[in-house]
Amino acid sequence: MNIKALGIALAATALVGAGALMGSVIGSATAQTTPQATPAPTTPGPKPATTPGTEPQGGWERGRGGPHGGMGPGSMGPGGFGERGGYAPTADGANNSITRAQNAVKVANDDLAYAKGKMDTASIERWLTGADSLIKQAQTAVTNSQYGQASGYAQAADQLAMLADRQMAQTLGADKLPSYSQRPAGRGNGKFGPGARTNATITQAQASRVLASTYNKLLVTGTLLKNAGASGDASTYLTEAQNAYKTAYTAYNAGKYSDAANAARQADELAGVADTLLRAATAPNSNDTPVTVPAPNFT
After folding, report:
1. Which of 48, 84, 112, 282 is most buried, judging by how many CB atoms fall within 10 Å of its CB?
2. Which is nearest to 124 in space by CA: 167, 177, 180?
3. pLDDT, block means (10 residues), the chain with 299 residues
4. Separation of alpha carbons 291 and 283, rounded Å
5. What is the three-state SS of 76-124?
6. Cβ atoms within 10 Å of 55's Cβ, excluding its own
7. What is d(CA 160, CA 139) in angstroms, rounded to the nearest whole number?
8. What are the helix and strand counts (H, E) for the chain?
């Protein structure tokens, strides 16, 4: 139990670190490709400060609103799914999570209808089928008054829908998708949208840090699943994440650093789905359900 508790803390730390790292990479990469209105100075100057509200949110746009809802920071508490970000273990919180996931899947399916025949949509369809299945599990959990689990399954479905939509945006361009007009600034429009990422130039140093961070997250998530004896969907998505990292690693060694970073980000998000499903399995049924408190054994 102590190892599991420590692993959960490490997983949360890895998730935040990976998000912040990817955000800084994309922000600096986009800045490198943005035309300058005035001639560059003859000597390097200090890096300009980022204007609050315009920076990418960790490269994953969590916490945003719009058709996908999104995850707010701190949405998961120590028992699985906390009382912030709309994922409280209550009937209303669970039903709200399900509604967000359903909206996200609908938006992604509308984009999928456009994308078919224009790109390989096999992964997109698999993720959306998985999201539909998780929504049904969430609805069953609500019926059984397992509100923490319901919120977790719904959140995982939402993550898969966002991943599917971003994959289409990266391949076809965010402005080509039917959902483009529904995206708030910063999520799919503007210089930090998925379309901007597709054309961003990423250096070897930047890509190396993204891959290293993602690999560490995969190790932590794998340890958590192994210690919990988890299988099923959580194991499936972790395996898919590991395969995406292998693709990223191959692209990195071939000098395709932008492709490597994109594949690593996909691996990170799939690992996030696996982690969400693992925590959902042990989430409290309600606000009145206590969670296991680990003993202070830190050796």
Report:
1. 112
2. 167
3. 44 46 46 43 42 33 36 37 53 94 96 96 97 97 94 96 95 92 52 43 94 97 88 93 98 96 96 95 84 82
4. 8
5. CCCCCCCCCCCCCCCHHHHHHHHHHHHHHHHHHHHHHHHHECCECCHHH
6. 14
7. 17
8. 8, 0
